[in-house]
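Title: [Solved] Lysine transporter LysE 3D structure

Original question kept below for reference.
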Amino acid sequence: MTLQFFLTALVIVLLPGPGVVYTLALGLQGGLRAGLTAAFGCMLGILPHMAAGSLGLAALLAASALLFHAVQIAGVIYLLVMAWRTWHDKEALSVQSAETGLGPVRIVLTAIGLNLFNPKLSLFFLAFLPQFVDSAEARPLLHLLLLGGAFMGLTFIVFAAYGTFAATARDLLTRRPGFLIWLRRSFAVAFALMGVRLAFATR
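Solution (posted by the thread starter after getting help):
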């Protein structure tokens, strides 16, 4: 795993989405254990994306450059649209709608469902991973699965940090809306920068 892959994956994991919101919400209203349980569920929700994306990418890596660039353009458009939406969506980091009193199984299942239907993950495995696998790689599928596993581990670490932060800084997140605005806009800028970077990426 290269530093470039690590930084790219880190930005993707940090970007606000339903999994982040759910983990923050559970950490705020259910405490540390609930936040960590939500983080674990979100990590498990990546598995279907990794399986489908890696199998498809193994064929894509051997296909024409035209197909690769078509997927690349889709990724750029998606990132720029998400940057705009995140900048303007005032509810992107809302923590007022979490359910309380949930058992660990229900928390995990809900978190899996959130990531299972998260298009950000599909785009990651379909548009971003090809940049980190050499076209001459002898075993591209294995390489993709290893990168996917690393992405899952990074997801759990970051989401666990979100849950821990939310559980220990409730007053900061619920009584200072200016902080949430700053955080949301920082993520929006990261989306835009990732889109620009992907636009100039080569196969």
